[in-house]
Amino acid sequence: MSKQRSNKASAAIQASLKKRYARERRFQWYGRMAVLIGFVFLFILLADIVSKGLPAFTQQYIRVSVNLDPAMTGLQPGASQEQIYGADYLGAIKSSLREMFPEASSRNDKKALYRLLSIGAEYTLRDKVLEDPGLIGHTTEIWLRAHAEAGSYLKGQVSADTPESDRKVKDQQMAWLDQLRAQGRTESRFNTTFFTQGDSREPEMAGIKVALYGSFFTLLVTFAIAFPIGVSAAVYLEEFAPRNRLTDLIEININNLAAVPSIVFGLLGLAVFINFFELPRSAPVVGGIVLSLMTLPTIIITSRAAIQAVSPSIRQAALGVGASKLQTVVHHVLPVAMPGILTGSIIGMAQALGESAPLLMIGMVAFIMDPPAGITDPATVLPVQIYLWADSPERGFTEKTSAAIMVLMGFLILMNGLAVYLRRHFERK
Q1: Which of 228, 242, 248 minimizes the C-alpha distance to 299?
Q2: pLDDT tens digit sequence for 241-280
Q3: Strand runs (DSSP E) across 113-185, as ranges?
Q4: d(Cα 409, Cα 180) in Å, to the nearest integer?
Q5: Cα–Cα distance, 6 to 54 (Å, whole number)
Q6: 343: which residues sit within 8 A by CB, 6+ positions away?
Q7: 209-428 CATH fold
């Protein structure tokens, strides 16, 4: 009888174990599926951004035979630099286009013909003449930047099968572009303008240079303020501050500040630094101060965690050989905690690099073409530039938006990679 009971109990245990193991296997599969789904969605997002952004890194050019006739440009051989600057290059380009396509006789046809080239073509021709004044009075072959709409057709982004009313590149323009391509007068080049020019209302002339400069100066101010203050606060709270209600209140508020929406810091910057202290609007110095306030809680929390992780034996050994409390912290605790401190600081800076809401509140959404020379000059930053381009209806700005996102993601990956490298480097040291 007891043997039968034992067999029943053993069978029940085995059944229970099978059910438990089955639940564990199902739970593991649920976890794998969740990770797989996350990777799939991430891949879809990245693939969409890359597919839309890659065309922005190429620029289409059209080779035009421009006749620099003095009667057309107003330039004579031996003209001064001032006269070269004031010449009518646009008229010469339009005249050359009409000679290349004499069938464009009506006003609308001519307007469509001129739209094949960017409005910056005249400045390209001017720079060419400034470089070689001997071109005056002669016909020269010059590569000029194509308009964004013409460039989209040359890149294959616009189909001739689409109804003409649903596309900006008209049938006649397509015929002209096909003719130019057949003659070898079109060329695709790497879009250096994207990195060397500021913002523009024309997609083919817009770049992220101002945003890169603005992001650099803003992060420079952010790091100069947030890192020393954050690390000092963490060291004081962890090593020197007495344990009482005041320090408990400070710690609670630091943790609460880490959860405050970023736009609140933007409102603070607008009310205090711009309206009260009258600091310049849309300047990296204000943006850096606002982002440093937002980044401080992250740096303090991560720095405290790194200091807490230092073995107590290191402190005891330093104090045991006669080192003061300050010497122990500076020469022993901080070097050991530095990998974690740097990692937390770089992650906080990466978070600040991707912020746009607080900077919108302090006016860094302005249209700026010239890069800033310092922290007090008007500027914008990459996230705000992406926001501005995303709000534009032109197709050229759509691909510029995705390309700028790719650049921003590249910087974030580099910063996180730097954090990993510094952590490993200091840990080995």
Answers
A1: 228
A2: 888 888 888 888 888 888 888 888 888 888 888 888 888 8
A3: 139-145
A4: 37
A5: 71
A6: 302, 306, 419, 420, 422, 423
A7: MetI-like fold (1.10.3720)
